[in-house]
Amino acid sequence: MKQLTVDLGERSYPIYIGEGIISGLAATLANHKIGTKSPILVVTDENVAKFYLAQVKDSLEAGGYRVATAVVAPGEKSKSLAVLEDMITVALEAGLDRSSAVIAIGGGVVGDLAGFVAASYMRGIRFVQIPTTILAHDSSVGGKVAVNHRLAKNVIGAFHQPEFVLYDTATLKTLPEREIRAGLSELVKEGFIWDREFVEWFDANTDKLLALDSEALAHALYIGCGVKATVVSQDEREGGLRAILNLGHTIGHALEAVSGYDELLHGEAIAIGMVGAAMLSEKLGNPGSIAVETERILRKLGLPVRIPSHLDTDAIMSALMHDKKFKEGTMVFIIPTAIGEVEINSNVSSVWVREIVERLKGEA
Amino acid sequence: MKQLTVDLGERSYPIYIGEGIISGLAATLANHKIGTKSPILVVTDENVAKFYLAQVKDSLEAGGYRVATAVVAPGEKSKSLAVLEDMITVALEAGLDRSSAVIAIGGGVVGDLAGFVAASYMRGIRFVQIPTTILAHDSSVGGKVAVNHRLAKNVIGAFHQPEFVLYDTATLKTLPEREIRAGLSELVKEGFIWDREFVEWFDANTDKLLALDSEALAHALYIGCGVKATVVSQDEREGGLRAILNLGHTIGHALEAVSGYDELLHGEAIAIGMVGAAMLSEKLGNPGSIAVETERILRKLGLPVRIPSHLDTDAIMSALMHDKKFKEGTMVFIIPTAIGEVEINSNVSSVWVREIVERLKGEA
C-alpha cells in the first residue's frame, strides 16, 4: 500500500492507495478515531452500489458500526439541493450526530454531494472518501465539495477536508473504457502543470494504464494525487496558485456547458481544452512543440483533441465569458510554458481565444 | 460609537455599536476592503425592508457599490433550502463573484439565512451583519449560520464568520414590545452564564432597557456581545465551553418544537428554560436562591416563567430526548451554580427533568 499526505496543517489527511484495501475500511476508520457509538452514513450511486455497497456495509457492521445508506442516481443531476435535502433526511432519521461520519463511495458526483452533506450537516461532521474512478482522484484532494444550481455548476458548496481518502485500485476495474480514458486525461494534466517526468512516464506506460495494470494505476494515482496535494497545500482556499489545476478547464467547462453536459465526459472536454491552452501558448510566443506534444500524448490515450464541429462558436465564446474564472471581467487562462510547467496569464485576448476555438473545430 | 473585537485569530472581526451608524455603511465596507468592483447582495425581510432597505441601498449606491437585493418573508419558514436556492439565483443573476459580499439586515432569521448564502456561494464569500433586533446580538457573534430541515432546526449550515457586525441601536426602536422583552431575555442570559455584575446592572436598568434608551441598549449589547465573544473565542467550533451559551435552551428548544414555533418567541421559551435550569440546579444541591433570583429578574422584564399548561409533558420530554445536545444518549444540561456562573452537567436524570417540567406547568 502506498500512502501520501495532503499537508494542510491541522486539516492534513492521508491518501491510502492499494489493491483490495477497501476490505480494511472498518479498521482504518477506527485508526482515525471514528468510533462505533454514532451511526455512519454511506453515500453511493446505483452503479457503484451494485458492486460494493453490500460488501462495505457488511464489513462495517462486522466492525461494530451502525450504518445508514443512501443510494443516489448516477450523474450530475444528483448534485442538487433537493438530493442534499434527502441525504439530510436520511442522516436525521438514522440519528447521525456530531460524532458521526459520512463515507462517499463513488466518483466525483458522489464525493462532491456526500462531502457537502458532511460539510453542512450540523454545521460539519467528519468525511471519508473512497473514490472508485480515476477522475475522482481530482475531487478527492483539496476538500472542494458542492452541489449545482440550475444556472451554474458547483456554485453551492464548501471547503471540507476528509479524514482520509482510501483509493482501492481494484474498484477501478469495473469502469467503462471511455471513463478510464477520461480519468487518465485529468491525471496526465497533473503532469502537464507540474511534472515533466510524470508526463514522460505516462507516455511510456499508456498501454499498461489503459489495461488497468494495478501497479501502474497505483503509481499514476500516487504521483497525480501528490501533485495536486502539493498545489493545494500551498493554496487551500483558492487564493491564486490553485488556479493552475484548471489547465484545460476554461475551454473544457464551456464545451461541457454548450454541449449540455451529456455529449462530452469531463475528462474529454478538458483534453480538448488542454490542446486549446497549448495552442494559445504558441500565440503568446512559446514553442509550438508544446501543443504538438500535448496533442500527441492525449491522442495516444484515445482522447478527443478537437471540438465537435456542430457546437456553435458564439455559444462557446459566450459560455467562456461567463466562466467564473474570468474574475472581474479580466480574461485569465492557464497557459503551458513547457511540458510540465504552466503560468497564470491574465491578459489573454478574447480575439485569440475565438481564433483557437475555430481552429479546434477544424479537421482533427 | 463602541467597538469590541471577536477574537478568532485570522477570522477575528469587530462589532460596531452606536446610534445612527448604519448611515456610514459604505465607508465601513471600504475600510474593510470590500471594494466596489464586484456587486453586493443585501438580504433582508419584508418588515425590515420597509424601514431600511431604500436607505441602505441609496447610501451604498452613493458610495459606488452595485447592489442586488433579496427580500424574504419574515419568520423561520424563510430559513429553508428552497429560499437559499432563490438567494443563489439572485446572486448569480446579479453577477456576484468571489470578491463580492453578502450583507444581512435583520434579525436572526435573516442573519442565519444570508450567512449560509455567503458561506456556500462559490464555497464562501464575505459576509456582513447588520442586526436589527436585540435577539440577533446572539446570532451575530460566533459565525453559526444555517437553514432548517423539516425534521430539525439549524441542521444544515456552516461556521462562517462575518467581516464585521454593525449594530445601529436606532434600528431597534421599531421593534414590537414583545420582541424587545424576548430579546432582552437572551441578553440577560449572557449575564447569568458569565457576569454577575451584568445581571445586577440589568436588574437596576430594566426600565431604561424596556424604554429603549439608546445608551442603556448600547451598553447592554456591548457587554452581552462581549460575553458571547469571550466564550466563542475559546471554542469557535463548539467543542465544549461554547455549550454554556445554551443555558435555558434545552428546555426552551423543546417548548418551541412542541408548541409549533408560533406560540412562544425564542426569548420567551428560553426564559422558561432558564428558570427550569435554575430549578434543576437546586435539585443538584445548589442554593434555591438562584431559581428565585432568576425568576424575579425575568418576571421584571415581563417574560413568561411558566410552561403554557396545554403543552403535553410527554411531548416535551420526547422533544428533549431528541435535542442534539444529548450527545450519544447522555443527558446534558447547562446548570447555574450561582448568579453569573454555570457548569456543563452531563449527569442530569431525566426523572428530575420530568419533575421540573411538571412543576413549570403549575401556577405561575
UniProtKB/TrEMBL annotation, chains A, B:
The pathway is: Metabolic intermediate biosynthesis; chorismate biosynthesis; chorismate from D-erythrose 4-phosphate and phosphoenolpyruvate: step 2/7
**Positions annotated to bind Zn(2+):** E186, H249, H266
Q: Family per UniProt?
A: Belongs to the sugar phosphate cyclases superfamily. Dehydroquinate synthase family.
Family matches, as Gene3D superfamilies: 3.40.50.1970, Dehydroquinate synthase-like - alpha domain
Q: Which segments of the protein form a coiled coil according to its record?
A: none
GO MF, one term, reads:
metal ion binding
Show the catalytic activity: 7-phospho-2-dehydro-3-deoxy-D-arabino-heptonate = 3-dehydroquinate + phosphate
Q: What cellular component GO annotations does this protein have?
A: cytoplasm
Could you tell me which InterPro entries the record lists for this protein?
Dehydroquinate_synthase, DHQ_synth_AroB, DHQ_synth_fam, DHQS/DOIS_N, DHQS_C
Q: What is this protein called?
A: 3-dehydroquinate synthase
Q: Where in the cell is it found?
A: Cytoplasm
**What's the main place this protein lives?**
cytoplasm
Q: Which HAMAP family match?
A: DHQ_synthase (MF_00110)
Q: Where does NAD(+) bind?
A: G108, V109, V110, G111, D112, T132, T133, K144, K153, T171, L172, K173, T174
Which EC numbers does the record give? 4.2.3.4
Q: Does the keyword Zinc apply?
A: yes
Q: Which cofactor does it need?
A: NAD(+); Co(2+); Zn(2+)
Q: Name one GO biological process term.
A: chorismate biosynthetic process
The record, for Pfam families, names:
DHQ_synthase (PF01761), DHQS_C (PF24621)
- Please report the stretch or stretches of sequence annotated as the 3-dehydroquinate synthase C-terminal domain: 183-325
What does this gene product do?
Catalyzes the conversion of 3-deoxy-D-arabino-heptulosonate 7-phosphate (DAHP) to dehydroquinate (DHQ).
Key words, A-Z: Amino-acid biosynthesis, Aromatic amino acid biosynthesis, Cobalt, Cytoplasm, Lyase, Metal-binding, NAD, Nucleotide-binding, Zinc
Cofactor mode of binding and number, as noted: Binds 1 divalent metal cation per subunit. Can use either Co(2+) or Zn(2+).
